[in-house]
Write a structure and sequence with these properties.
Layout (H helix, E strand, L loop, with lengths): L1 H5 L1 E7 L4 E4 L7 H5 L8 H14 L26 E6 L7 E2 L3 E10 L5 E11 L4 E6 L5 E4 L4 E9 L4 E12 L5 E13 L2 E10 L2 E10 L5 E10 L3 E6 L4 H4 L12 E3 L5 E10 L4 H7 L3 E10 L5 E5 L3 E2 L8 E7 L4 E2 L4 E9 L8 E5 L10 E3 L4 E4 L7 E10 L3 E5 L2 E5 L4 E2 L6 E6 L2
Parallel strand pairs: 4-11, 22-31
Antiparallel strand pairs: 1-5, 2-3, 5-9, 6-7, 6-8, 6-10, 10-11, 12-13, 13-17, 14-16, 14-18, 15-17, 18-19, 18-20, 21-23, 23-27, 24-26, 24-29, 25-27, 28-31, 29-30
Length: 437
């Protein structure tokens, strides 16, 4: 019985693209050994060069020459690339990377002397976390496989986990005596990471910059089809690129037929930069929730012969957003501000809590420095504001006056809760330009 069992086998072959066959010997043109490049500057000498070389070098394509004297000579200019035009089939199982599609050809062979019937075949991938069924013929078993015959099939699996994987192939069948038998076979392989993604986040005032550095860990070049940042609900994203207009011109087809970005094998890197901004209508809500999730990267690529791959990063986190109970926001400032002329600044006061707050007072705080304030309140030094309902807001205008020309700063606009006796964060400093009337 053991002998019969070993005659019923399943074989596995991975399906993947072939590679180019490269001929390592160096080939050359005899002209390069005998003369220099400057010979072509003299038309007379250049015209006599080919006959001179042909006298001493056999015809490269002469099949009657069995001395192999011309084996290192270029038969065609393209021979210098070392590519023979042949493709080489994979000689081993090869490396399997995260984000690729694992495709294998499985052949179940009946090497026994009898016909097997009612074969139920199953193929599944087992990982540390889950089991994924790839093929199951339980509902429609293979009727029979004759002696010396086989049953072939192809299975595919999108690789989404790192580490050890096991492809389990099982066959349940009736042997020549009608006895039900079970045959499992296991094929193990490991999945590694083709890329590493390192990110840096920098916040500059109301704008957040995200830098993503992608490194290629495979042994082949990767061509990036897409490296897009998908922002979370309250963010908008813009990719920043070098200005190449002076090189490529305004070609409308370039954006459609843009070449992929090459990241070279064994440690090649490429950097991407994105500018992120909070949606204005959602800025208050985000600050209440205190979320710092920016979004995630979607990366797709192809290998030299076009095999696709796809990865998605985890959520990228930015600087935590502090929860503010009350926030003072700038809405509008005049485009023209004249010396010693009153002007009005449009402000908005927002209550981010779920309780009623206020009433409030708005004034210019006095800093500890001895610098004279250039921009001051015009009129009453304190403005009274009514209570704010839960999650409510109010707009108001603050009258100011500038007493000095040039670029000046509006500093220290502060909100004070008269009931809670509490100062809230002042409005960030604002630069203005003061001109002559």
């Amino acid at each position: 019985r053991r002998k019969e069992r070993t005659r019923w086998r399943s074989g596995l072959m991975r399906l993947c693209k072939p590679s180019f066959h490269v001929e390592p010997p160096l080939q050359l043109d005899p002209t390069d050994l005998l003369v220099g490049e400057d010979i072509f500057d003299d038309p007379l000498a250049a015209s006599h060069l080919p006959p001179l070389i042909s006298r001493h070098v056999a015809n490269p394509i002469d099949s009657s020459d069995l001395s192999y004297r011309t084996r290192f000579l270029l038969h065609h200019p393209s021979d210098s690339m070392g590519l023979s035009g042949l493709l080489v089939l994979p000689q081993s199982f090869g490396a399997i990377y995260l984000g690729e599609t694992f495709c294998s050809y499985i052949s179940i062979n009946n090497s026994s002397n009898f016909e097997v019937r009612d074969i139920i075949i199953k193929a599944e991938i087992q990982t540390e976390r889950q089991r994924i069924l790839l093929l199951d013929t339980s509902k429609s078993p293979v009727e029979s496989i004759r002696s010396g015959g086989r049953y072939d099939f192809i299975v595919e699996h999108d690789v989404k986990e790192l580490g050890a994987h096991t492809l389990v192939c099982t066959a349940l069948y009736n042997d020549g005596d009608g006895e039900r038998k079970y045959l499992p076979q296991f094929f193990k392989f490991s999945v590694s990471n083709p890329l590493s993604v390192r990110t840096k986040v920098r916040a500059v005032k109301e704008t957040t910059y995200l830098e993503a550095c992608i490194e290629n860990h495979t042994k082949s070049n990767l061509y990036m089809d897409q490296v897009d940042f998908e922002p979370s609900q309250h963010w908008s994203s813009t990719v920043l690129k070098a200005n190449e207009n002076h090189l490529v011109g305004n070609d409308p087809t370039r954006e459609i037929l843009k070449p992929p970005i090459l990241i070279r094998s064994s440690g090649g890197i490429y950097n991407f930069l994105y500018k992120l901004r909070l949606s204005s209508q959602d800025s208050g809500q985000v600050k209440v929730e205190g979320t710092n999730i920016l979004g995630k990267l979607q990366i797709t690529w192809r290998t030299i012969l076009g095999e696709p791959g796809r990865l998605q990063t985890q959520q990228i986190l930015g600087t935590p957003i502090a929860r503010k109970d009350v926030e003072l926001l700038l809405v509008e400032v005049p485009s023209v501000i004249n010396l010693d002329r009153p002007f009005s600044v449009h402000l908005n006061l927002v209550n981010h809590t779920d309780t009623k707050l206020g009433p409030f007072e708005v004034f210019l705080s006095q800093n500890n420095s001895h610098e004279e304030k250039v921009v001051m309140i015009n009129g009453l030094q304190t403005m009274a504001l009514p209570q704010l309902e839960a999650s409510g807001s109010t707009d108001f205008h603050l009258n100011l006056i500038a007493t000095k020309l040039g670029v000046q700063r509006i500093t220290g606009i502060t909100v004070f809760d008269t009931r809670e006796k509490r100062n809230y964060d002042p409005l960030p400093d604002l630069e203005i330009f003061v001109d002559m009337d």
